[in-house]
Amino acid sequence: LKMSAMLETPELPAVFDGVKLAAVAAVLYVIVRCLNLKSPTAPPELIYQDSALARFLLKSCPLLTKEYIPPLIWGKSGHIQTALYGKMGRVRSPHPYGLRKYLTMSDGATATFDLFDPQSEHCIGEDVTMVICPGIANHSEKQYIRTFVDYAQKNGYRCAVLNHLGALPNIELTSPRMFTYGCTWEFGAMVNYIKKTYPQTQLVVVGFSLGGNIVCKYLGESQANQERVLCCVSVCQGYSALRAQETFMQWDQCRRFYNFLMADNMKKIILSHRQALFGDNNMKKPQSLSDADLSKLYTATSLMQIDDNVMRKFHGYSSLKEYYEEESCLHYLHRICVPLLLVNAADDPLVHESLLSIPRALSEKRENVMHVLPLHGGHLGFFEGSVLFPEPLTWMDKLVVQYANAICQWEKTKSHCSDTEQAVSGQE
């Protein structure tokens, strides 16, 4: 019996080693799946119509046809790209110096934007201003905006960055209204200021996420809004809030969790302006905005609940459906005549793939539109880097500036050809 027991005991560690090995294998499998390590790297998918402009862009913008290679360990996970952007913004972000401008709106609201001068001569030697609209509840002090502005300045662009109404913690509201999903009033006021102050400048319009919706809606609202505009770039927007609201309540790709986090941030911003928005002594407060709405705000767990109870009432919309329908750029995109670059990431956890049929259909019909869809990048991430640590500049930063440079060159070439034709015609 003793001999039998001695022979059996060595087998127990072997069993435990097998369990450990299985556990390690399981963890490695989860890591590979979560980090999406088996996903290939590839050039972005491009949807466009064959035209002289498209051919020029493909030659002038190498990033459109070159592989986008995210950081090896975590860069293929849209969730990590999104989380890293949301938590950190950018790494080693610079601190460009700008002047803050204040504009009084017709309803008493005070719009603010920051103005940054170019730090070098532009590639075509002309005066060009980027008018930039950040993402939801963002402003010029966010790190991803600072990084992009610094890079644009170094490429010869003046930059004007809108601070969403109510987003800056040190600026009080002067009317009972905050920024909303598609209100273009403040952005329009900033653009008009730039046009008036710099009568020779031409504009490059840039919008990130929610800002992409605002800039596209602004351009499509009126042909006059497109005057002196060279091009427009929209990054990571969802195009239709009405279509997006259903997908944003789903747990697929953790969208419901992201929805909760974004709603929590919005609640904090709204409550920081509680007196201006809900104060009893505020005679300008929308009649539909009541103390009951403030109570509902405290218990809201989604952006849709906040939009329904608070945001839509700033502009008098009778329902959430009406608010989302009217405020989305979906019905304005086809009115944009200037070159339009629509950028999304296939692994963006906030923008459901069904929404990407909108830019795809538009770019298949209109020669001025190109849709760019890299496999990776998350929501406003697009980090680059060799293995673990990302670089300060992202693929997105470089693409926007590269596209803007190409459009400037295109317009200069067209202008030169036109001048030559007129000179020849005059000699004849």
From TrEMBL:
Cell wall biogenesis/degradation listed as a keyword: no
Residues covered by the AB hydrolase-1 domain: 129-385
Subcellular location: Cell membrane
Domain of life: Eukaryota
PROSITE patterns listed in its UniProt record: UPF0017
Any single Gene Ontology cellular-component annotation: sperm plasma membrane
Mode of membrane association: Single-pass type II membrane protein
SUPFAM superfamilies (alphabetical): alpha/beta-Hydrolases (SSF53474)
Catalytic activity: a butanoate ester + H2O = an aliphatic alcohol + butanoate + H(+); Hydrolyzes glycerol monoesters of long-chain fatty acids; a triacylglycerol + H2O = a diacylglycerol + a fatty acid + H(+); an acetyl ester + H2O = an aliphatic alcohol + acetate + H(+)
Keywords: Cell membrane, Glycoprotein, Hydrolase, Lipid degradation, Lipid metabolism, Membrane, Serine esterase, Signal-anchor, Transmembrane, Transmembrane helix
Molecular function, one GO term: acetylesterase activity
Tagged with keyword Cytoplasm: no
One Pfam family linked to the record: Abhydrolase_1
Record-annotated active site: S209 (charge relay system), D348 (charge relay system), H379 (charge relay system)
One GO BP annotation of this record: medium-chain fatty acid catabolic process
EC number: 3.1.1.23, 3.1.1.6, 3.1.1.79
Family that this chain belongs to: Belongs to the AB hydrolase superfamily. AB hydrolase 4 family.
PANTHER family: ABHYDROLASE DOMAIN-CONTAINING PROTEIN, MONOACYLGLYCEROL LIPASE ABHD2
Name this protein carries in UniProt: Monoacylglycerol lipase ABHD2
Native species: Aptenodytes forsteri (Emperor penguin)
Taxonomic lineage from the root: Eukaryota, Metazoa, Chordata, Craniata, Vertebrata
